[in-house]
Specification:
Blueprint lengths: L6 E2 L2 E2 H11 L9 H22 L15 E11 L2 E10 L19 H10 L4 H12 L5 H9 L1 H9 L6 E16 L1 E13 L4 E9 L6 H13 L4 E7 L5 H8 L4 E4 L1 H10 L6 H12 L4 H15 L4 H14 L7 H7 L3 H14 L8 H13 L10 E2 L3 H12 L1 H4 L2
Length: 413
């Protein structure tokens, strides 16, 4: 029977449950059943810790003349995942007892901080978290404490941003999301994110960098130099959205890399210069270009497209002419690889989670606050939603095809 019924500090939890039912005690909230159970468990654990510290249990004659003994109890309120709990903490006469379950001066037990961080990662502001904890758990927590809790991830984030990377990534995807940051005044700032696919077919977010909005080759040279310094010696394909100066910086960092313009970004840019009533027709004709079997066939399709639309939307056709050199590399690959590199959709699914997290905030007080939220989004995947990390389906076939194109750069690694 003892195995079936948990006993804590002499109290049968089943009896506690039955008592709560009889008295109509609610499950959660102040004085609720979960709160009573948590109080009982914490106090029992503290008593056991003191027993271990003193070397004898309460009432044991072995404690006489031991040089230290129990010295009453003090009360304190601690914040837990189920709300505020008022507990009594046993003391020893020498003052040498240092509890580990609820350390001295601690007002939060393990798990509470992670709950706050999880709410922060889901997009709640410090004020909303404060209100949520007060309404749901009856916990009165200041905004300053919430900020202090979430700041605990900054050192972890810095380690993540400077961690060593793998030597070879067959594919790297680079994209940007814009956030509002208060720097004297509130301005839109880009945050660039790079995702690498390693030789095992696993995706990993390599880093995130806050830009100023007017970056060129010099800025990107610094970002890519950081990736090289962290160990990335070779990349076969880099897919990006035509960011200013990026193709040139990629060629400087990895001279053998193919730079692939994101086709989805090209299509979106095209639609910006055309009337909505033609969008269906234009996207259908553009698809014939980027699904062409060869570069030559794509050129023929584009020439026909340009003849038709040049006079009406010259800026639209110019988008493709200016990007043609970076658009065509993926056309040499079979369908499985084309699907991976013709778009930065893998990052865009991450960006959608970023947008969800930043939507409620309006703006961030500084760069670190913005990066902190995005890092938490990366660190804490959302249940039942696609995860940016993880292995690519059918990777072995893709790797074999990459080996045919890139030879020893793949096989020797």
């Amino acid at each position: 029977m003892a195995a079936e019924s948990s006993v804590v500090d002499g109290l049968d939890l089943r009896e506690l449950v039955e008592k709560a039912k009889a008295e109509g005690v609610s499950l959660a909230g102040p004085g609720g059943l979960l709160s009573q159970i948590t109080k009982t468990v914490l106090e029992s654990a503290l008593t056991a810790e003191l027993d271990d510290h003193l070397g004898y249990e309460k009432g044991d004659p072995a404690g006489r003349g031991s040089g230290n003994e129990r010295n009453g109890r003090s009360q304190k309120t601690v914040h837990t995942d189920i709300g505020s709990v008022r507990i009594v903490v046993p003391r020893d006469r020498n003052g040498s007892f240092e509890p580990r379950i609820v350390p001295k001066h601690a007002r939060r037990v393990e798990g509470f901080d992670e709950s706050v961080i999880s709410l922060y990662a889901k997009g709640l502001t410090t004020g909303e978290i404060q209100k949520h904890l007060a309404e749901i758990y009856d916990v009165d927590v200041s905004r300053e404490l919430i900020s202090k809790i979430t700041d605990k991830v900054v050192s972890e984030m810095n380690e993540w941003q400077s961690r060593p990377l793998e030597r070879v990534y067959p594919i790297v995807l680079i994209d940007a999301i814009h956030v509002k940051i208060r720097d004297g005044q509130v301005v839109n700032r880009p945050i660039y994110v790079a995702v690498g696919v390693n030789l095992a077919g696993e995706r990993d977010v390599l880093g995130a960098w806050v830009g100023t909005g007017g970056e060129g080759a010099k800025h990107w040279a610094g970002v890519l130099a950081e990736l090289r310094n962290r160990g990335v010696a070779d990349v076969m394909i880099v897919c990006c959205d035509g960011l200013k100066g990026l193709p040139e910086a990629i060629s400087d960092a990895w001279p053998l890399a193919d730079v692939q313009q994101c086709v989805v970004h090209l299509v979106r840019s095209s639609l910006k210069y055309s009337s909505r009533k033609y969008w269906g027709q234009i996207t259908k004709e553009l698809k014939e270009i980027y699904t062409a079997p060869t570069v030559e066939a794509a050129q023929v399709c584009f020439d026909e497209f340009a003849d038709k639309w040049d006079s009406k939307y010259p800026a639209m056709t110019a988008v493709w002419r200016n990007s043609w050199e970076q658009f065509t590399p993926f056309l040499k690959f079979p369908a499985p690889i084309r699907k991976l590199v013709y778009t930065t959709n893998a990052i865009e699914s991450l960006n959608s989670r970023f947008r969800h997290a930043i939507r409620r905030r309006g703006h961030f007080p500084n760069e670190q606050a913005a990066l902190k939220v995005l890092y938490l989004v990366i660190r804490n995947p959302i249940k039942n939603r696609p995860n940016i990390t993880g292995k690519i389906s059918g990777w072995k076939d893709i790797l074999n095809t990459l080996a045919l194109f890139y030879g020893e750069r793949i096989t020797e690694n």
